[in-house]
Design a protein that fits this description.
heterodimer, A: 228 residues, mainly alpha, 9 helices, B: 252 residues, alpha/beta, 24% strand, globular
Chain lengths: 228, 252
């Protein structure tokens, strides 16, 4: 039943495991980037400097309302095809990968920012005041007192963002066939008698990826929660 | 700059301070000085502006006009200079405000290490001495939520003292405590007062005002209505508002 998987046509994806591995890589790098950029955005949105707050709010409200497909396709066509930015990649596959990660970071960081901001709101304002009263600077208050508690309170919602990101990486198929969804598209085209099987395979593949994420992060969330 | 300050410089000097919350005029032309070593208790009905005044002295509440000086230095605007000034002004809050994700010891050590750049061993030693002094050294490795209110507030006092402040501000330090825990906090504060700490205490504890204060400022409707010795205030209040206030709290 699964003989078709061995066709040399699919070997350039590294087979189904190879394709899913690229999905994992895309998710991993995008998640790290989104966490960093999202945290910076959240810091901007709570900062005492009006220009920073305005930039943070404008960025989030614009970028999160643009469809992801538009962001990814536009990044690819504008950055890679027109401006010829390679982002350090040496072949078209690598360039597509990097452009996709950049697009996912730009988009997902909005959701990280907003999730984190709701976490910041769970930290009693008095603790930030006490920290300021002790002579800590704004960034010290944020880094030492507010963000560590904010992160702990939003691990479970961040898991949802991570799961959404994992599935969103399939949009990469719209610029290059390098990951799971690309392989799925290729298979659907060629295995018209087995489309149900192909769909089921990829659906199960994603569930296998994301289900443990949610469970693991749920467990972490419980473990590190701050007692009040 | 700090070398210029002499013992004649008042520790706190407020001149014509005004503050509004929207249309509400919460501080009306407040002017006073606190000499070093003095223990000032601020009394007054709720909504009289006494907490706001306390919080404005280290600029947790910015004021709209007037000047506030701490040890001869005008309060700087937001930024590093303000942070430095705040480091010298200890503050104890009604709701303790301990950092919930850090142990009691880490709460006390944090600012000396991060702000004063003390090495950890020294900071730890000082912190343990302070916790010993406020009577909770055996709780050092617990988290705030594991302590009673009175213990948390004593930890908060130790945390403020760890910065070796020039002056200590107390914003209703016992108002959130169960009655049986009020005394343990007041005892620590009385001890501090005896050692000559300059203190600015907003409270409803009349016993503390009588026993430990050098001076009582009575506030009502954003003004300092009376400013006198505790004895004089409690036995011979001059204004109708002070008489009314004392009548309400001393009859029961």
């Amino acid at each position: 039943m699964f003989d078709f998987l061995d066709k040399p046509l699919y070997a350039e994806y590294g087979g189904i495991l190879g394709a899913f591995w690229v999905t994992i890589e895309l998710t991993f790098f995008s998640a790290i980037g989104s966490l960093i950029w999202g945290t910076i955005l959240a810091a901007m949105r709570v900062s005492p400097v009006p220009v920073m707050r305005a930039f943070g709010a404008a960025y989030v409200n614009v970028v999160r309302n643009i469809p992801l497909t538009v962001i990814i396709v536009a990044s690819s066509m504008v950055l890679a095809d027109q401006l010829l930015w390679t982002l350090g990649g040496s072949d078209s596959r690598e360039i597509s990968f990097r452009v996709a990660v950049l697009g996912f970071v730009a988009y997902t960081s909005c959701f990280v920012c907003e999730t984190l901001r709701s976490g910041i709101n769970t930290v009693p304002i008095g603790q930030a005041e006490a920290a300021r009263a002790l002579g800590l600077t704004f960034f010290q208050v944020l880094r030492i007192v507010v963000l560590p508690q904010a992160f702990r309170s939003v691990i479970a919602p961040l898991a949802s963002v991570l799961i959404a990101l994992t599935k969103n990486t399939t949009v990469t198929a719209s610029i290059a066939g390098i990951e799971a969804a690309g392989l799925m598209a290729a298979m659907i085209e060629r295995e018209s008698d087995k489309v149900m099987l192909v769909f089921a395979m990829f659906a199960v593949g994603f569930v296998i990826l994301t289900l443990p994420m949610g469970m693991f992060l749920g467990w972490v969330a419980k473990k590190v929660s701050v007692k009040r | 700059m700090t070398e210029q300050t002499s013992s004649a410089t008042p520790m706190i000097k407020a001149t014509a301070v005004n503050k509004y919350f929207g249309d509400l005029h919460v501080l009306k032309d407040i002017t006073f000085e606190v000499p070093r070593g003095q223990v000032v208790v601020v009394l007054g009905p709720s909504g009289s502006g006494k907490s706001t005044l306390c919080r404005s002295i280290n600029r947790l509440e910015p004021i709209d006009s007037g000047t506030i000086e701490v040890d001869g230095q005008p309060l700087p605007a937001e930024g590093r200079a303000l942070a430095q000034l705040r480091a010298d002004v200890g503050m104890v809050f009604q709701s303790f405000n301990l950092f919930a994700h850090k142990t009691i010891l880490d709460n006390v050590m944090l600012a000396p290490v991060k702000v004063r750049k003390q090495d950890k061993a020294t900071a730890r030693k000082t912190a343990m001495e302070l916790l010993e002094r406020v009577g909770i050294a055996n709780q050092a490795h617990k988290y705030p939520a594991q302590l009673s209110g009175g213990q948390q507030q004593r930890a908060a006092i130790a945390r403020a003292l760890a910065m070796k402040p020039k002056v200590m501000m107390f914003d209703e330090p016992t108002s959130a405590l169960d009655p049986e825990m009020v005394q343990e906090v007041l005892d620590v504060m009385t001890g501090l007062a005896r050692e000559g700490m300059t203190m600015f205490v907003v409270t409803h504890e009349m016993g503390f005002a009588r026993k430990a204060a050098d001076r009582v400022m009575f506030m009502a409707d954003g003004e300092i209505v009376e400013d006198t010795t505790p004895d004089d205030f409690f036995t011979n209040p001059r204004s109708a508002r002070a008489k009314d206030f004392l009548g309400k709290i001393l009859t029961h």
